[in-house]
Structures are given as C-alpha cells and as structure tokens.
C-alpha cells in the first residue's frame, strides 16, 4: 500500500504546482492583454487626441472596394488582430502601400486619421508611375476633384513629398538621386526643327502642346536647374500653378513691377514697405513715369478708396505683415476691391515674412505671391534668390519673358542649393515660429520694453480678425519697442551674446537689427514717423536655437541697457 501521508503530500504538491502554473499563466495573459489594450488606446486616442471623427464614408467605399461603413470595432480589430481580419483584394493593395495617400496639407498640424485613408487635400500632386521628365511637371489635383477610379490609379503624394519628387528624373542625371548642377550657357538641339520650335515658343509665336518637351536654348532664358527648382517649389505654395526664380528678392519685385505696369500707369502699395522696395519705387519707377499710390498698411477702408479712385491702376502691391511693424493687411478685402475696380488690377503679395508655411495669398484670391527666397526658403543666410508664384501660368510666362531680357534668372549653382533647402522649409519655420511665440510672450511686460510687436499679442480687434482669417501661425519675427529711444536700442544690441546684429531674416541663426538706421534708412524722417518706425524699434528674426537660451540672452541684454545722460537718451 502507498502511504497515505505520502499520497496526500504528492496531491498537495501537484495541486500547488498546477495552481502556481495557472496563476503564472494568468499573469502573463493579463500582461499581454494589458499591453494590447494600452497600445490600442495610445494609437487611437492618445496619439490622435486632436483628431476629429472621420467621414463615415470610407476610402474603400469611394473606390468601390467595399460597401460597409467603418466602425471603431472594425478599426480596433484590424489594428489588434490584422491576421484575423479578412480584407478585400483592393484593401490588401492599399496596405501594401501601392497607393500613397495624402493627409492634411503639409502646412497644417499633423493629425492621425482613422481610417488611415482620408480624402486627398486640395493641394495634392499627382505623379505618373514613372518619374517625371525635367520638362514635364506632374499634374495638380484640382479643388473638388473626385478620387480616381480603381482601374486608373495615379500616384498620389503630399506636397512635402512632391517637393522631393516632382520635376526630376534621375535617369536624365546618370542615376543621381538628387539633381546635378548644369553649368552650361548654351544647349545643343537634337534637330534644326526642334531649334525652330524652341525659338517660336520662346518668342511667343507659338504655345507648347500639353506634355511637349521644349528644348533649351540659352541659360539666360532657362536652364535645367531653374526648371527643376520651379517645378519642385510649386507644391509648397497652396494654389500655385507655376513659378519663376530670380537672382534676388529685389530682382523678383522689380520684374513684377516692370511686367505689369508701364509709364503713365499707376500702382498701389502699402506702407511701411521694405527699404529696397521703397528705393525702387521712388528712385527708379517714379522718374520713369510710373505713378505710385501709397496706402497705410492695415487700413482696409483707405485701401478700397484708393483702388476705386485710382486711374489706370495696374497693380496692387501688398506687404503683409509689414516690415518691421508687423501690421497686417486684409488680402481678401484687397482682392475683392481690385476685382470690383474698372481696370481689374492684379494683386501681388510680398509673403516673405509668413510664407509659404503660415500664409497663403493665392488661396485668398491674390494673383501673384513674391518671396525673397534669401530668407526662409533658403534659410541659412548664405545665398540670394527670389521667387514669384501664380495661379495663372500665363502670368508666370510673362514674367519669364521680362526675366530673359533683364538677365536676372537664378544661376544653376544657386538653383541647386535652394532646391536642396526646400524639403526643410516647413520644419525650420515651425521651429522658428514656436521659438518666437514663446519668447515674445515671455518678454511681454518686461520693464525695459514699451511693448512687444508680435501677431499673437495683437490688441486691435481688426488686426486680430485679419490674423485669424489669413495666418496659420504667427511666424518667427518679433519687434521690440525699447524704452529709451535709439541709445537704449543700441545698448541692447551691443549687449547681445547669442543673437547677432545683422540685417536680413529667416536664417537658422537669430538676428537683430535697428530698422530705422539700417533696412529702412532710405526713407525720409516724415515717412518713417508716419509708418511707426521709431528709433526705439529693434527687429528680431528668431532662429532654431533652444528658445530658452535666446530668451535668456534677450533678457540679459534688456537688463543691461545703460542710457548715459544726454540729448540722445530721450525716447523718440
């Protein structure tokens, strides 16, 4: 007989062993389920906490791949147990990334959408399956266009992707992953007929056929690097159809004035305006017979009256926000007034301060948008460039004709360099805007400052309305009104250690300058006073450094202001 005590001990040990194994298994199972649950919560609620409830009509329904409406249960089941979810063949293709789908435009805050295949945005580039030829830019999906059917799938990409892929075929550059530099002044024609055709189109005697690759003639007219850059910069500007590049921002502005106006005709411009533009208007255009009409920035009523009362008005030139006061002008109101004027003038916007990431004039109805690409587009204070973009490709063709005569096209090396900066424009501008907003709001109320001029600190209701209507974010420019006039402003600039006393803006480094004695020194005293550009203003272009270091530098410089007694110590 088996001893009873030994049997009891064996049974107790066996039961305890099974109990321990059961408890351990339960704990492991609980840990796995808890991890799955937390993963589902993170992916669908925490990480996408700012998302809205998606359109119940799924992309699969729009592509005629499915008829069932989406549900959170199906989405979570697909996320947690993808192998158990039976997907239609079309969905399998979508999940294999054969279809690259767009989300929100690149210039807005990214939100995670569920289901993960939302509608395409307004500004969405359609690329063919093969890479685009140098002269064959991809198509832009028109606003309101339906999604293509499944039997004719295009290659849909976001604007930030189109910047890297549009207008460049590596096969034409010996397989180079990025565009090469073409330093040629003239180009060889394949046949005499192609040379004849190229000159006919260049002289305006003929128009290119859709998809036609017109051969290049001469680098003053165009060159491969300019064409690649002009193709790839278009997706950055919402609503743009074409672009022209120039060898500086002032070259772009000059070409716009000379292409749209003539002697005896008038144009309207807002004040204050950049000092170089002011010099162009009053020392070159006005003596040639152009009739400039200044209007205070931000005064919508005065702008409307000036547009309606001007004779032979050809152009309305807006600089918003104004440099350096950051006064905002209502673009849509100016466009509506221009459309109602008898002459139907064009509306051009110098969008250097906020674009292309934070303000989109073409979507507000403007005809032309102008950039000093030296600033935010290039971003490293190491080159000069200018860009003009338009909704109408014919306007850009007109500008290119004037550019060919003036010879102010951007050279191949600079085109190549600017092209390499485009993919990071939005990244840099977002960082600069966040830094600037934190710094401006932290400095607001400092005892050494009368006020801080910055879009998020506006007090005027009309300015707030304009800001909210046309600006996505406040940007990277701050203007400080220092107590103590010019002497205090100069003392502040001398005390800076991180920020550098230099003109220009938009670079990755923080720059500060005194506008009245530098960028706007060409303006007379009365014009400066009327524009609000006083001796106490200091303009700061915030870079991508750690914002806390910049803030400390500015605070220490303000705290260290020393005003010696004398006539220059009084505020102006």
Instruction: Supply the CATH superfamily name of the domain at 208-421.
Output: Type I PLP-dependent aspartate aminotransferase-like (Major domain)
| Radius of gyration from the alpha-carbon trace, in angstroms | 30 Å
Q: Could you report the average pLDDT, rounded to the nearest whole number?
A: 83
The CATH architecture of the domain at 208-421 is 3-Layer(aba) Sandwich
CATH top level class name of the domain at 208-421? Alpha Beta
Sheet-strand content, in percent, reads 5-15%
Q: List low-confidence stretches.
A: 49-54, 91-123, 125-145, 147-152
Biggest sheet descriptor: 7 strands, mixed
Anisotropy-based shape = globular
Portion of residues in helices? 25-40%
Distance between the termini: 114 Å
Give the count of helical stretches.
Answer: 18
SSE-based structural type = alpha/beta
Tell me how many strands there are.
Answer: 15
Task: Characterise the protein shown here.
This protein has 572 residues and is α/β, with parallel strands linked by helices. Among the domains are: 208-421, Aspartate Aminotransferase, domain 2 (3-Layer(aba) Sandwich), CATH 3.40.640.10; 426-569, Aspartate Aminotransferase, domain 1 (Alpha-Beta Complex), CATH 3.90.1150.10. 38% of the residues lie in helices and 12% in strands. The protein has 18 helices and 15 strands. The strands form 3 sheets. It has a 7-stranded mixed beta sheet with strand order 4-10-9-8-7-5-6, with helices on both faces. Helix 9 links the parallel strand 5 (266-271) and strand 6 (291-296).
